[in-house]
């Protein structure tokens, strides 16, 4: 899988840079989709940075399907605080975009289901899944990647 982007440092709203050993994300081209993996997200700034990077990658490189896998991170229930709806509005203008959300805990999965409801209200193609094969099926992939 070709690596598109990876980050261990975060640039916060003031433009200053700090590194957080717990935060890690990668964005890579998968088999027919873009794969974005996030580990150790704890803060609003980290979330915004990741979501902005994924959205920009999708819009700039023509990928229409995205598998977002979130692990060892805090759940998101204050979506407005994270400006997630703003990014969904950017993607909702083109119904071809589809984003599948995966989580490693029940609490994260519940927050993804909440995000799915809000995204659908914006007209964005976002769904939360319990397992990767189901997510890949929804995204339209013929093969199931093992991770």
Written description of the protein model:
This protein has helices at 44-61, 79-82, 84-92, 106-121, 132-139, and strands spanning 3-7, 9-11, 17-19, 24-29, 34-39, 65-71, 98-103, 125-129. The chain is of the alpha/beta class and 147 residues long. The protein has a single domain, classed as Transcription Regulator spoIIAA (2-Layer Sandwich), CATH 3.30.750. The protein has a six-stranded mixed β-sheet with strand order 1-4-5-6-7-8, with helices on both faces. A two-stranded antiparallel ribbon has the order 2-3. Strand 5 (34-39), helix 1 (44-61) and strand 6 (65-71) form a beta-alpha-beta unit. The protein is globular, with a radius of gyration of 14 Å.
Which structural class best describes the helix and strand composition? alpha/beta
Radius of gyration (CA) equals 14 Å
Neighbour order of strands in the largest sheet: 1-4-5-6-7-8
**CATH homologous superfamily grouping:** STAS domain
Distinctive features:
about 150 residues; alpha/beta; two-stranded antiparallel ribbon; disordered C terminus; Transcription Regulator spoIIAA; 5 helices
A few lines on this structure:
The protein has 5 helices and 8 strands; from the N terminus they run E-E-E-E-E-H-E-H-H-E-H-E-H.
Question: How is this fold's topology laid out?
Answer:
Elements: E1 3-7, E2 9-11, E3 17-19, E4 24-29, E5 34-39, H1 44-61, E6 65-71, H2 79-82, H3 84-92, E7 98-103, H4 106-121, E8 125-129, H5 132-139
Parallel strand pairs: 5-6, 6-7, 7-8
Antiparallel strand pairs: 1-4, 2-3, 4-5
């Amino acid at each position: 899988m070709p690596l598109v982007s990876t980050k261990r440092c975060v640039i916060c709203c003031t433009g200053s840079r700090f590194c957080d050993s717990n935060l890690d994300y990668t964005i890579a081209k998968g088999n027919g989709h873009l794969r974005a993996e996030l580990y150790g997200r704890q803060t609003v700034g980290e979330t915004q940075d990741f979501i902005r990077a994924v959205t920009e990658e999708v819009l700039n490189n023509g990928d229409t399907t995205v598998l977002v896998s979130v692990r060892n991170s805090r759940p998101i229930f204050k979506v407005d605080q994270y400006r997630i709806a703003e990014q969904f509005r950017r993607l909702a203008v083109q119904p071809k975009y589809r984003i599948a959300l995966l989580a490693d805990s029940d609490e994260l999965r519940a927050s993804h289901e909440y995000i799915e409801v809000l995204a659908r209200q914006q007209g964005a193609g976002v769904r939360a899944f319990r397992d990767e094969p189901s997510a890949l099926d929804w995204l339209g992939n013929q093969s199931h990647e093992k991770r």
